[in-house]
């Protein structure tokens, strides 16, 4: 009460001093009396209100409890401000007196509890002080400097208790980590240890406070979430994830009188991948010991009621832990064969038991079923994984070397597992096999087409392509024994394989296909081989399937033109390259003119030899690779290019002397004699004679070339006889203008030449 009176006295003194100054100034104007009367009339109600406030202050009796610098600061702040004028009622003034008092009292209690290591009571008193400060800050019209001082004091004391609590936490939870903390190698993680000093102490006077007191105090201060999040991340990184990622690790627990230790032991003989059941058992063991020594603590969480530490930790780390279990454990356990799907029920059961165990520990909520949902959806995951594995295997085959080949003959057989009976509902019987000739179509009845129908000619294909077709067959076979959804997914996966081939192979092997004629030929065969199988691939499995594949359009026929076009375009591109090289070599023959000049003759002869060497080399490269008919057509086309170029150059000559004609004939004879020898499609020499004798069938300009040779050595009458009024063999190969041009070049201008020219029409 005395402090309040002092405030009023101080206020009155300030009023009187202010009034005296005004009197001195106003006396000169004759207004002194009027001002004095008005001032005291205004001051009288304030004086009476102050007397009543003194009485209330004496009832609250704050002075004996405070008497501190803090209390003096409050009153000095009140007096130095204009609060006396701004306050609208006595309640506001009372609040200014009472709430700082409560703040001061709470801080005293906080310091006392902190010294006694009663962390929960200390945290509660600190929150009480924080509440008092919030009330003061919420009062409108208060602009007290003391509020900033109180706020700073509160921050300092909050950090003070948090520091103490974190020090206690580090005594309770001790991590022994390897020197290289960031390493996830087996050698590093096996050195990790967790020490829990939360074992109930036998000595009641133990210096370390109970873990519940520390955790509850952190919860009151709102700091538990941050500390628990850090603990959860350490638990994931150094305990839980290593157990999932390293099958050889086993958790080992050890209880001592004052500490519980969790460490690892590495098995020397361990599998490359642990089963989900084994991983679940290891994780469950870790949570059981944590539940016993740490996570079973019950806390009063502000705004949430009573919760256990296990619930709070589960909310923080379960999402990351479940993702790790799914991607590094459950995904790897998904069967790669539909016949093993039945065995997966054990994994589903183990997953359900694992989730139930965590729910009993209150680590998981009752409605949490992320792992179980994933495990139960095994059919979809099986299809996804199977498709992913098939696509990856197919891509590896597509990017492997093309030149590793196998020989395909019309009687080659493709070994396929027997398709199940549509009415039996049984799974695949992989033990039995149905061998189908590569050109035979099983129509699903006793009747079969001839083995020669749709037969593939003998050639060489890449072994990787043969494996690719086997992969497609077995994947479709898997589809016939799967659920409807899985069947369609696997069927589409096989289509994706072939579409991927059209994109990957030409791009990945582009440079080799352009430069190496043999690889271009093998790629041509590969495409034709795949197209050959695509003609009947869908029909075979449509007939043998009793599921959804029997009721939908299972066909690959639409892909056949694309594969044929892919193979043909690649081979034709290589043919254009070879044609270009032939023409380039013949361009150095100096147009076959002036053959009486030794240098020109040597140049022309060299060009002819180079062309023949190129064709022989191609014949060896493509030998036993291309089908015989394709080989002969390709070699005939290239030889025809050379012959047509030589004919064009010679026909264009304006003057051919007798010596020139003899030497041109010699060059042409070389082509005629050695040209057929390039036709060696088979390894057996004696079998190639047949194709060498059929050169005119494959070389369009062969007879034209031979007729040119006749003209070079014939006289005028022989040429006229060969023309035979446009009905002879010469007329079939050359036009009248071309024959006349050759006659003018070969013979001098005489009457006989004129007569001969007259007959050529």
From TrEMBL:
InterPro entries given in the database record: Zw10/DSL1_C_sf, ZW10_C, ZW10_C_2, Zw10_middle
Residue ranges of every copy of the Centromere/kinetochore protein zw10 C-terminal domain listed in the record: 455-584
Membrane topology type: Peripheral membrane protein
One Gene Ontology term from the biological process aspect of the record: protein transport
Domain (Centromere/kinetochore protein zw10 middle): residue spans on this chain: 166-398
Coiled coil: 112-139
Compartments where found: Chromosome, Centromere, Kinetochore; Cytoplasm, Cytoskeleton, Spindle; Endoplasmic reticulum membrane
Domain ZW10 C-terminal helical: 606-760
This protein's UniProt keywords: Acetylation, Cell cycle, Cell division, Centromere, Chromosome, Coiled coil, Cytoplasm, Cytoskeleton, Endoplasmic reticulum, ER-Golgi transport, Kinetochore, Membrane, Mitosis, Phosphoprotein, Protein transport, Transport
Recorded family membership: Belongs to the ZW10 family.
Subunit architecture: Interacts with NBAS and KNTC1/ROD; the interactions are mutually exclusive and indicative for its association in two different vesicle tethering complexes. Component of the RZZ complex composed of KNTC1/ROD, ZW10 and ZWILCH. Component of the NRZ complex composed of NBAS, ZW10 and RINT1/TIP20L; NRZ associates with SNAREs STX18, USE1L, BNIP1/SEC20L and SEC22B (the assembly has been described as syntaxin 18 complex). Interacts directly with RINT1/TIP20L bound to BNIP1/SEC20L. Interacts with C19orf25 and ZWINT. Interacts with ZFYVE1.
Protein's UniProt name: Centromere/kinetochore protein zw10 homolog
């Amino acid at each position: 009460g005395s402090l309040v009176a002092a405030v009023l006295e101080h206020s009155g003194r300030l009023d009187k001093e202010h009034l005296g100054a005004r009197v001195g100034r106003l006396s000169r104007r004759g207004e002194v009396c009027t001002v004095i009367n008005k001032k005291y009339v205004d001051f009288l109600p304030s004086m009476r209100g102050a007397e009543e406030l003194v009485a209330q202050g004496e009832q609250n009796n704050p002075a004996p409890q405070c008497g501190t610098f803090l209390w003096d600061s409050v009153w000095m702040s009140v007096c130095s401000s204009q609060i006396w004028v701004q306050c609208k009622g006595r309640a506001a003034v009372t609040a200014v007196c009472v709430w700082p008092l409560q703040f001061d009292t709470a801080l005293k209690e906080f310091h006392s509890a902190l010294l006694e290591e009663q962390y929960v009571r200390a945290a509660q008193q600190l929150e009480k002080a924080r509440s008092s400060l919030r009330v003061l800050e919420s009062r409108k019209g208060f602009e007290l400097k003391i509020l900033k001082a109180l706020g700073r004091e509160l921050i300092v004391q909050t950090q003070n208790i948090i520091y103490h609590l974190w020090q206690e936490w580090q005594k309770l939870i001790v991590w022994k980590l390897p020197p290289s903390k960031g390493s996830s190698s087996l050698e590093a993680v096996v050195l990790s240890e967790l020490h829990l000093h939360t074992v109930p102490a036998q000595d009641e006077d133990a210096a370390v406070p109970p873990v519940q007191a520390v955790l509850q105090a952190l919860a009151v201060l709102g700091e538990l979430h941050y500390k628990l999040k850090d603990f959860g991340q350490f638990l994931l990184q150094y305990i839980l994830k290593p157990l999932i990622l390293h099958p050889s690790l086993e958790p080992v627990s050890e209880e001592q009188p004052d500490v519980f230790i969790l460490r690892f032991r590495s098995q020397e003989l361990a599998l490359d991948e642990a089963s989900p059941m084994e991983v679940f058992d290891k994780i469950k063991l870790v949570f059981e010991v944590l539940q016993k020594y740490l996570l079973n603590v019950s806390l009063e969480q502000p705004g949430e009621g009573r919760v256990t530490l296990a619930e709070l930790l589960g909310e923080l780390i379960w999402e990351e832990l479940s993702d790790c279990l799914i991607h590094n454990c459950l995904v790897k356990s998904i069967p790669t064969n539909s016949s093993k799907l039945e065995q997966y029920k054990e994994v589903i059961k183990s997953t359900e038991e694992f989730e139930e165990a965590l729910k009993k520990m209150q680590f998981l909520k009752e409605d949490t079923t992320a792992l179980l949902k994933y495990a139960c959806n095994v059919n979809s995951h099986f299809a996804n994984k199977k498709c992913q594995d098939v696509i990856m295997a197919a891509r590896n085959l597509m990017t492997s070397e093309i030149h590793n080949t196998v020989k395909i003959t019309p009687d080659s057989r493709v070994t396929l597992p027997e398709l199940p009976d549509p009415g039996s509902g049984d799974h695949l019987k992989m033990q039995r096999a149905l061998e189908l000739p590569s050109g035979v179509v099983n129509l699903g009845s006793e009747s079969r087409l001839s083995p020669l129908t749709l037969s593939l000619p003998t050639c060489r294909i890449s072994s990787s392509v043969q494996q690719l077709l086997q992969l497609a067959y077995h994947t479709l076979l898997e589809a016939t024994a799967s659920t409807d959804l899985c069947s369609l997914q696997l069927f589409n996966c096989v289509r994706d394989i072939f579409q991927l081939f059209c994109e990957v192979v030409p791009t990945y092997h582009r440079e080799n296909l352009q430069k190496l004629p043999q690889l271009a030929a093998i790629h041509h065969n590969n495409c034709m081989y795949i197209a050959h199988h695509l003609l009947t691939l869908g029909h075979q499995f449509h007939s043998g399937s009793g599921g959804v594949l029997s009721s939908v359009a299972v066909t690959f026929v639409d892909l056949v033109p694309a594969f044929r076009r892919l193979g043909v375009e690649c081979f034709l591109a290589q043919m254009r390259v070879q044609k270009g090289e032939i023409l380039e070599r013949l361009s150095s023959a100096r147009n076959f003119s002036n053959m009486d000049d030794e240098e020109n003759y040597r140049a022309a002869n060299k060009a002819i030899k180079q062309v023949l060497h190129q064709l022989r080399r191609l014949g060896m490269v493509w030998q036993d690779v291309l089908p015989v008919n394709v080989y002969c057509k390709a070699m005939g086309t290239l030889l025809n290019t050379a012959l047509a170029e030589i004919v064009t150059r010679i026909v264009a000559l304006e003057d051919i002397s007798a010596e020139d004609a003899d030497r041109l004939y010699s060059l042409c004879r070389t082509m005629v004699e050695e040209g057929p020898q390039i036709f060696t499609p088979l390894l057996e020499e004696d079998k190639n004679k047949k194709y060498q004798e059929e050169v005119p069938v494959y070389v369009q300009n062969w007879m034209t070339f031979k007729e040119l040779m006749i003209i070079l050595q014939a006289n005028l009458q022989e040429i006229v006889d060969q023309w035979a009024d446009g009905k002879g063999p010469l007329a079939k190969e050359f036009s009248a203008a071309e024959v006349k041009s050759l006659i003018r070049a070969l013979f001098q201008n005489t009457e006989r030449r004129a007569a001969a020219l007259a007959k050529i029409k």
